């Protein structure tokens, strides 16, 4: 980024100012899970590997994993399943060298769907709700 400074005709000075962004542009994509499963899929591993790269670039960054299910199954079962998914996600990141103290997780079960499926949903709509989202809690200044 540059900022221009005006001067008089007699004294023209060009000033170039470099601005460091307060927060780097970081776009974390959610990962998705298969129905009734908590294992990390190949596509999820691809997204998580990108997150590992970002966290290695910003060693002060801390991330919270928020995991969700679709509405099929009991509320209690879905809460347990989302906890398993959250743990699987965190364990994958730890296995790639991210320190455990930089990660936290929470399973929300079916309480926060992207797609409201109370009436009728397609398989694709249910799949959108089976996800882990990533929240940046702290990062390098």
Plain-language structure description:
It is a single chain. With 141 residues, the protein is an alpha+beta fold. The protein has a single domain (31-138), classed as OmpA-like domain (60s Ribosomal Protein L30, Chain: A). The protein contains three helices and four strands. Strands 1-4-2-3 form a four-stranded mixed sheet. The two termini are 18 Å apart. It is found in: Cell outer membrane. Residues 20-140 form the OmpA-like domain.
What summary fits the major beta sheet? 4 strands, mixed
What is the annotated CATH architecture?
2-Layer Sandwich
How many runs of DSSP E, i.e. beta strands? 4
Strand content: 5-15%
* Name given to the CATH homologous superfamily: OmpA-like domain
Distance between the termini: 18 Å
Helix content: 25-40%
Biggest sheet strand order reads 1-4-2-3
Structural class: alpha+beta
Average pLDDT level = 83
| Rg from Cα | 21 Å
CATH class wording:
Alpha Beta
Subcellular location: Cell outer membrane
Domain OmpA-like: 20-140
Keywords: Cell outer membrane, Membrane
Organism: Pustulibacterium marinum
């Amino acid at each position: 980024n540059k900022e221009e400074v005006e001067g008089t005709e007699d004294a023209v000075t060009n000033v170039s100012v470099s601005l460091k962004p307060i927060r780097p542009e970081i776009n974390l994509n959610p990962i998705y899970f298969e129905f009734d499963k908590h294992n990390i899929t190949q596509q999820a591993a691809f997204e998580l590997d990108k997150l590992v790269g970002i966290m290695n670039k910003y060693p002060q960054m801390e991330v919270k994993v928020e995991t969700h299910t679709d509405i099929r199954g009991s509320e209690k079962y879905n809460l347990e399943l989302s906890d398993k998914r959250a743990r699987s996600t965190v364990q994958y990141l730890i296995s790639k060298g991210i320190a455990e103290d930089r990660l936290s997780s929470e399973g929300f079960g079916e309480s926060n769907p992207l797609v409201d499926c109370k009436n009728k949903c397609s398989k694709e709509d249910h799949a959108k709700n089976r996800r882990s989202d990533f929240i940046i809690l702290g990062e390098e200044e």
